[in-house]
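Consortium newsletter contribution from the modelling node. Members have asked for a concrete example of what our holo predictions look like. Here is one, prepared for the N-(iminomethyl)-L-glutamic acid complex that several groups have been discussing at recent meetings.
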Amino acid sequence: MQKGNILIKGASEVVTCSGSHAKFGKEMADLNVIHDGSVVIRDGVIEAVGKTEDIIKKYNEKDFQVIDATGKAVLPGFVDSHTHLVFGGYRAEEFSWRLRGDNYMEIMERGGGILSSVKATKAATKAELYYAAMRRLDSMLSFGVTTVEGKSGYGLDLDTEIKQLEVMTEVDDNHPIDVVKTFLGAHAVPPEYKGKEDEFIDFMIEDVLPIVAEGQLATFCDIFCEKKVFSVDQSRRLLRKAQELGMKVKLHADEIIQLGGAELAAELGAVSADHLLQASDEGLKQMRDKGVVATLLPGTAFSLKENYARARYMIDNGNAVALATDLNPGSCFTESIPLIFALATLYMKMTTEEAITAFTINGAAALDMADTIGSLDVGKKGDVIILEFPSYHFIPYHIGVSTVEKVVKNGILVFD
Ligand code: NIG
Ligand code: FE
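And here is the predicted structure:
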């Protein structure tokens, strides 16, 4: 990816979100805003952040592409740390079935749901998956996303899981957004393994995971730890093996039933546990003590008409909370960052500041990347968004509409 030199000058607010690790509890309210600020990016890396009057004394504008941000707020690019962005086919009819009262898990049990996307993803060519994923990334970029996590999990076999991960590498190479890859081979139980979940986990451990790990095809290993999918013991077995092979781990945990996924995330030292609608107080406490990021996905709760995760409780009790879209073809088909901001602030009782932290430095922490992205600090990647409005308060206030006017990635203006 190319790297550029840009001077973003005269912003009404530079919302730095400053930090190099997750923000816990009360720390999430601190955005560290510089009024009348500027940001200097050289060779794709942030070189200076400060008051405009100080910056313009030190730097020669001729050395940079200058963006006049007068009357605009500037923030770090958003980090969408949980998506399933590579998939074949769609499940629009399932959405309509759910409106008529069908249940998400029951649809899966009768062979639809995730399994229907598995069929379509197996049938899709790499080129089809590539172009569909590129379009989704374009949409994400328009919302100010500069780093996204993408999961496999619509193959449940060696070839298709690898096909998905290879497509992610290709889109990462060819799109301005950075794509962090997660192996989610244990996303559902394929029909041939129904009732033989332990054998499926053995297959993943013996035949798939080593190839993914050796080929460095993914940074993370994830699993759908849920009643009627994979148990806590099965999840522990797979994720421990992934850790032995040098991978980092995260979990779809305690989404529909309280199973102890949060406790398992703490036990394993997972980087994040995601969903957590039903997580226990004790599990959340253990996650806090172990520094596991709680990644909340309110778009999914909204789309499935579930109750929201207890964001307020988590933050008041000191957890580090991240927000993400969970973009996928079933439970939550949206790339919309504005939608998630609306749900987080209006329904989950998060403040605007906490929601911004959750989509920047804590999103980065959910990918174990808080030392390189997620804030406007010297030495970090030059990933910056410029709003069309003077203050970050406009982000949730302009309900459901993107306030992002420009996106800079590695010091290159990539969306305008
Ligand atoms: O995070 N919960 C499991 N996995 C996804 C849904 C995937 C799908 O329905 O295709 C989720 O919600
Ligand atoms: Fe998910």
